[in-house]
Amino acid sequence: MAKYFDVHPENPQRRTIGNVADSIRSGALVVYPTDSCFALGCQLGSRDGIGRIRSIRNLDDRHHFTLVCQNFAQLGQFVHIDNDVFRTIKAATPGSYTFILPATKEVPRQLLHPKKKTVGVRIPDHAVAQALLAELGEPLLSSTLLLPDEEEPMTQGWEIKERLDHVVDAVLDSGDCGTEPTTVIDFSGGGLDIVRRGAGDTTRFE
């Protein structure tokens, strides 16, 4: 059964965040809130976590996983960014955007797009997600909690706990999350491609 943690949306309890971070380091798959919607998260190198996310969401090997980072310095360790892209992304973070970029050697091979060798990265503008990332000291391997054949993510932590009780290890709930996944911007092809229009405003990229 999944553990359920109710945390304050702006000042999450440090002990609770510490407990969740410890469980992630021990291999747990957790559900946590972001500035777009709830997400599934596990430790960066967890093969079991990746497999469980693929199973829950029914994903194929072409799916772009996302490294959710605490800040820009951390993000820069995992992707290659030229100066123009650097300025564009810096101006849009933190926020509800996922950026697809060429991965560095720091990214485990199983996370990469099999042909493009790219990975998604993002910096959330959400106090609970930021507190968890700060406690972990490394990115969370993440994917939007959108179940197969459903058009919108679940918004209630208690509902997630009920439905995914036997396939995740913990649910971190700070109140309603949105229903729009992040806006996805692909910079890996040398230009700028808006792959998905979501919670983040695309005006700055058009």
TrEMBL record:
YrdC-like domain location: 14-200
Molecular function as annotated in GO: double-stranded RNA binding
PANTHER family linked: DHBP SYNTHASE RIBB-LIKE ALPHA/BETA DOMAIN-CONTAINING PROTEIN (PTHR42828), THREONYLCARBAMOYL-AMP SYNTHASE (PTHR42828:SF3)
Name this protein carries in UniProt: Threonylcarbamoyl-AMP synthase
